[in-house]
Amino acid sequence: MSRLLILGSANADHVMNLEYLPSAGQTLMSRGYRLEHGGKGANQAVAAARLSQEGTRVDFICHLGQDAIGQAMAQAWQQDGIAPEGITYTDTQPTGTAMIFVGDNGENMIGVSAGANATLTPEALKAHYPLIDQADYLLMQLETPAVTVLDALQRAKAKGVTTILNPAPAMVIGKDLFRLVDVITPNETEAETITDIEVIDEQSAKLAAQMLHQLGPKTVIITLGKQGALLSSDKACVLVPGVEVDAIDTVAAGDTFNGALMVALGEGLSMQTAVEFAHRAAALSVTRQGAQRSIPYRHELAEV
After folding, report:
1. For residue 106, what pLDDT is reported?
2. If DSSP codes are grouped into helix, strand and coil, which group holds residue 304?
3. Confidence at residue 256, expressed as pLDDT on a 0 to 100 scale
4. Torsion sign (Cα): 279, 274, 223, 9
5. Three-class secondary structure of residue 162 per DSSP
6. Which residues take part in binding ATP (predicted)?
7. 186, 164 in Cβ contact below 8 A?
8. How many Å apart are CA 82 and CA 75, to the nearest integer?
9. Is 220 within 8 Å of 233 (Cβ atoms)?
10. In whole angstroms, what is the distance from residue 98 CA to residue 10 CA?
11. CA dist., res. 283 & res. 243, Å (int)
């Protein structure tokens, strides 16, 4: 049985639909509002759980507030098959919150308040070391404290766990962290933040990938939106085409991609086949509104 572990954030997403994304100082009337279950870590955990085959265990290490939305999120995750052992409640902070604006073209702008996510410190992580020790793959993002991400990576590498880092949201972090990463999955903006190379096409993505390899990761996957994803490793450097669909909401697309990628790798698929699998899952997610409610189940991938 494959064991997949996600460590990361969980947020209550407050979503407004707008005709277009506002500019600085501009006020727009919303066409609709809804409250969603979100957070990059939680989205990726849900994607992994929904896309896994029977026999795969999915764990999620996160912190929630002692509030109704946190409890509702945890209940929904368990219904999707996420094991509850990694979920911790804190009474010092509310569940994390995100404010999301979505334009008619599917593009989005997001602001996040960490809340309980910030309490997932290295000290708090120690209680979850057994989950890291038993995992086959560990997937993380950057919406929890960077020191905790580093600590988890160090623990995972010491135990022989394959590590995947989705360096999102884009931010400047210590370069030493990358030495502990096996697979890194930035988008164009995140790749530029790390490498200072503007990524606009396949050629610039290759240059950024080379620099990322020098930092440590053996496998680099730079997602390029409609162009697909550049896969670079010691075996090959290829552009893996995406799946063309009519996008209406891209909020959880990257998270769906990452969760799906880990599932495919856990099933022993080649890296390129895993990227193709992840493309299909992400493509289906952008044809639906919402964060976790847009993430497909395994049987739905036959639609794309």
Report:
1. 73
2. coil
3. 98
4. positive
5. strand
6. 187, 223-228, 254-255, 279
7. no
8. 10
9. yes
10. 10
11. 6
Model confidence pLDDT, tens digit, residues 145-172: 999 999 999 999 999 999 999 999 988 8
The residues annotated as belonging to the active site are: 255
Look at residue 240 in the predicted model and tell me its pLDDT. 97
Residues of the binding site for substrate: 11-13, 39-43, 143, 255
Compute the radius of gyration of the chain from its Cα atoms: 18
Rounded-to-integer distance, Cα 103 and Cα 21, Å:
5
Q: What are phi and psi of 89, to 5 degrees?
A: -105, 140
Amino acid at 240: V
Indicate the annotated binding residues for ATP. 187, 223-228, 254-255, 279
The binding site consists of 11-13, 39-43, 143, 187, 223-228, 249, 251, 254-255, 279, 285, 288, 290, 294
pLDDT of residue 236: 87
Give the annotated binding-site residues for K(+): 249, 251, 285, 288, 290, 294
Spell out, as residue ranges, where the chain has pLDDT lower than 50.
Answer: none
Three-state SS sequence of the chain: CCEEEEECCCEEEEEEECCCCCCCCCCCCCCEEEEEEECHHHHHHHHHHHHCCCCCEEEEEEEEECCHHHHHHHHHHHHHCEECCCEEEECCCCCEEEEEEECCCCCEEEEEECHHHHHCCHHHHHHHHHHHHHCCEEEECCCCCHHHHHHHHHHHHHCCCEEEECCCCCCCCCHHHHHHCCEECCEHHHHHHHHCCCCCCHHHHHHHHHHHHHHCCCEEEEECHHHCEEEECCCCEEEECCCCCCCCCCCCHHHHHHHHHHHHHHCCCCHHHHHHHHHHHHHHHCCCCCCHHHCCCHHHHHHC
**Per residue in 124-148, pLDDT tens?**
999 999 999 999 999 999 999 999 9
